[in-house]
Amino acid sequence: GPIQRSSLHEELQLPPHELDRAVGERSMGRSDSVGGGPRSASVARSTTHILPRVDELLRPLIRMGTSAEGRSALSQLPAAWWELLPGAQVLQCILDAEGDEASLPPEILATLRGLEAKAMARDSEVSSTPEEIFAKLELAYVHRELGDAGRQLQDPRMLADPELTRRVEERAEHLRARKSSLARQLRRHLRP
């Protein structure tokens, strides 16, 4: 029969919109949720937490965030480098928990465990140095910022403000120089 959303969201202690999203995604055949199999009250409890998608660049940062040394290194990074990437909420939750995994929401903990398991199976991620990880993250940020600057410079309104155009062009030039520097740094890391 039809799911009684009002009682189910109370039983599962989920806001109605979260329950609707989870049920909708499950009915569309998405398989990125925890659990699976036939629907029952016991399975429903384990499948309502949809694991967030995490950008490849954030995965090593999330694992770093579980240690005090890693959190210290991450606190030195500008949040702008990572805060708009898919999965940023996972990293933020882990940083906010300050090493207390018991305080993490179940879907965040499940995501962390999944990333840890994948990292153990992959040699390349495990062998990356923090400097290389941070350089890749910054390079991706620089690429995004260069794209934004390019779009700004193509905006017809920029013609009306030569000073703003000059500032955006200077910023783009600085970003291109930083991009070159980061590319050289990453090439050094790739040499055997």
Globally, the shape reads: elongated
Structure classification: mainly alpha
Number of E-type strands: 0
N-to-C order of helices and strands: HHHHHHHHHH
Estimated helix fraction: 55-70%
Assembly type of the chains comes to single chain
β-strand percent reads under 5%
Helix count, per DSSP?
10
The poorly predicted ranges are 1-9, 23-48
Radius of gyration (Å): 21 Å
Distance between the termini: 61 Å
The average pLDDT score comes to 78
Largest sheet: none
Structure description:
By secondary structure, the protein is an all-alpha fold. Helices cover 66% and strands 0% of the residues. The protein is built from 10 helices and no strands. The longest helix is centred in the last third of the chain and has 29 residues, at 162-190. It is elongated.
Summarize the model shown.
The chain is mainly α and 192 residues long. Helices cover 66% and strands 0% of the residues.
Write the layout of secondary structure elements.
Layout: H1 5-12, H2 16-27, H3 41-47, H4 59-64, H5 68-75, H6 88-97, H7 106-121, H8 123-127, H9 130-154, H10 162-190
Helix pairs in contact: 9-10
Features:
192 residues, mainly alpha
